[in-house]
Each structure stands twice: as C-alpha cells, then as structure tokens.
Amino acid sequence: MGEVSVVTDKKAQANLDVFSNTLQELASTDRQILVVTSDSRGSGKLVPFGQKYPAQHIEIGIAEQNLVGVAAGLASTGKKVFAVSPACFLTARSFEQIKTDVAYSDNPVKLVGISAGVSYGALGSTHHSLHDFAALRAVHNLIIVAPADNFETEQAIRLAAETEHPIYLRFGKKAMPLLSEENQQFEFGKGRIVHEGDDLVLIATGETVYPALQAARQLESIHGIRATVVSMHTIKPLDYNLLATVAAKGCPILTVEEHSVFGGLGEACASFLIQNGFRNKFKIMGIPDEYTVTGSQVEIFNHYGLSDSGIAEEGLKLINK
What we know:
The chain has about 325 residues and is an alpha/beta fold. The chain has two domains: about 15-175, Thiamin diphosphate (ThDP)-binding fold, Pyr/PP domains (Rossmann fold), CATH 3.40.50; about 190-320, 3-Layer(aba) Sandwich (Rossmann fold), CATH 3.40.50. The protein contains twelve helices and 14 strands. It has helices spanning about 15-25, 45-50, 65-75, 85-95, 95-105, 130-135, 150-160, 210-225, 240-245, 265-275, 295-305, 310-320, and strands spanning about 15, 35, 55-60, 80-85, 110-115, 145, 165-170, 175, 190-195, 200-205, 225-230, 235, 255-260, 280-285. The strands form three sheets. It has a seven-stranded mixed beta sheet, sandwiched between helices. Keywords: Thiamine pyrophosphate.
C-alpha cells in the first residue's frame, strides 16, 4: 500500500493552530469566553491564549473529571467555556461528567479533544482515542464534530462559541490543507461535498478526508473512476439528507475514519442506509478490533490502509466486488 501523501501546501496549518488563533481572536472582544485546561496548554497550542488573556484561562491540572465538572459549572453561569484535554483521556476518564454534568444538564460546554485518533501513535494504545465517537454518539444532547481542514476548524470554533448546546470537537495534530476553494459553507449537521463523481462515494471525517480526496484524484487519473468525496465533519447529528442523496446514485460507498470500525462514522452511515432501504455496496475503513500497532500517525495509517493509495485500492475492490 502507498504512503500517506505529505502535505506540502505552505498555507496549511494544524487545525489546533487554527483553533487557538480563532479562539484568541474571539476572546479579544468577548470576555465570556473561557478556556479550561488539564495541563494541556502546550499540546493544545494555548500558551499564547494564556499569556494574552490570563483572566480567561483556568488550569485544572491532570484531573480530567474535575476539568469537565468545573467547565459545566462555569457554563451554567453563562460563560462560553472551551474545556481542552487529550481526546483519549477527556472522553474516557470524564465520561460520567460529560454525560451527566454537560449533556444531560444541557450545559453548553465546548469539549475539545486534542491529539485525537492516533495522533499520539508512538505512545501506544493507551493514548489512542479510537472510542470517542462510539461512546459519545450514545449520549443524548451532544453535537460531535471532527473538522477536516483549516476552513472547517475556524468555522466550527466560531459557531461553537455561539451555540448554546454541548459540543464535542475533535482535533488531530497534522497540518491540513484546504480541501476545496469552493463550497465554502459550514453548518453543524451538514456535510460538505469536496469532490464530485458518479462511480464511487467516499465518506470521511477529520484527518482522513484529505487522503480520501487524494485517493479520489488517484482513481480518476489512473483508472478513470470518478468518486464523490464527502467531508462528514459532523458525526452527530449526521447529515441524513446528504447521505440519502449520495446513496441514491446507486454506486458503492466507502467510509473512512481514524476510529475503531465499531460505533463510529461507518456504522452510523450503515444504520441509516439499511433502515431506509438502500442496498449500495458498502464498506467501513478504520482501525480493526485488535491491539493497535504503535508508530507515528503516518505509519499507522499506512499499516491499516488509510493512506490515499490504500483507500483507492479498497475503492477499486468494492467497485469490482
């Protein structure tokens, strides 16, 4: 299988950098914005935020349950709270607090899971967050968003700051180029088509969208196969209208995610399609049910076929199945 494409676009930034810069801009005119961290200022790219706005930054230390509880209390008073912590710990150690103090109590905390998926790949399975979609999809009253590029990230942060409902935002660490200069619209619950085609549908989320787009370009240039590529940045609520529209083409559908194949984007799409009578060829690409290999994000993506060439290869197999 081929290597994950190296991002060479000099304008590309890590989505976390865009998150930090956007939050600083918003905080400069809105004193209600607060950031709560669990000794995660550095990894969350929030050191500049704390230096500029020390009165709007609260450090909890490595105590994720407390992080979410404090954030919920602050949000209940009308503050616009961004609670930032590594995704693997935020969504597992704090699950009870997310469920009860945030979602069930409708406290509009912006839960920000950083270094998500296998961004901490070299640190091993304890630092992978391959469970977060599955766990949080089952929690009522929680929007789940995984922006794919810098545009989606900036728009998601701006929208989250004004949204009076609980949100989980998921970010990796890699520099991500703009997916498209067109279709520059963003709304929670509305997926984004970044490439059009009639032979195959690739539905991806977060940092797997770019390799899916590269796979589509590869399929077209080498095999003459045109694929629709969807950035399904909102996992919940899923864009059922868009899903039905692309499924109506009748072509195979391949979902791609930096998450377990259980309980994430793929199973959410499959559930809708099956229950609504669609019979497209369908496959979920993600991390299988095994002890995940250790390595960099690129190495893990290559190992599990989540590279552009790996996705293209699975797309071909699905078409010819």
